[in-house]
Amino acid sequence: MWSTNISLSYSYNAANPTNIIKSFWMNTNTTLQPTPNWRIQHNARFDLESQSLVSQSFSIYRDLHCWEMSISWTPGGYGQGIYLRINVKSPTLKDLKIEERGGIFQRRAQF
Predict the structure, then answer these.
(1) Contact between 31 and 5 (Cβ < 8 Å)
(2) Which of 16, 68, 82, 83 has the most CB atoms less than 10 A away?
(3) 3-class SS of residue 92
(4) Measuring CA to CA, which residue among 71, 65, 1 is closest to residue 30?
(5) Hey, CA dihedral for 52, 30, 25, 57, is it positive or negative?
(6) What is the residue extent of each domain of the chain?
(7) ∠ CA(90), CA(96), CA(97), 5° rounding?
(8) Are 72 and 58 in contact (CB under 8 A)?
(9) Is the dihedral angle over the CA atoms 49, 23, 56, 5 positive or is it negative?
């Protein structure tokens, strides 16, 4: 199973006639679910005015019966880095988890 969503956004701000601000964005979200327990996603944002890729992220999710694992990677831009999480699915034990971050928002050890 797979799905793709595409959205467009355009804004035009002429509040200051000497500094007109235009933006035209395209956001995409693609999800691939090869099995009921695996899900792979890719999100991207394109600036159609400057014809450039502004941001993108990749994520993988795995259902491990009573546990779940997710890993997300943002290769550049705001939020750049990697995030890994393995946790118990039970709401009662939601604090039982392993999390690791790397990149701009990397956790630092505190003593």
Answers:
(1) no
(2) 83
(3) helix
(4) 1
(5) negative
(6) 2-103
(7) 105
(8) yes
(9) negative
Look up residue 33 and give its amino acid. Answer: Q
- 13-27 mean pLDDT: 93
Locus of tokens 């600036």: 47
- State pLDDT tens for residues 38-52: 999 999 999 999 999
If you search the block for the tokens 């997300």, which residue do you land on? 72
Task: Please report the sign of the dihedral spanned by the C-alpha atoms of residue 81, residue 86, residue 89, residue 95.
Answer: negative
Interacting residues of 48 by C-beta distance below 8 A, sequence separation 6+: 24, 25, 26
Residue 39 burial (10 A CB sphere; 0-12, 13-18, 19+): middle
Q: Which residue in the block uniquely carries the two structure tokens 């701009």? A: 104
Per residue in 32-88, pLDDT (tens digit) is 999 999 999 999 999 999 999 999 999 999 999 899 999 999 998 778 899 999 999
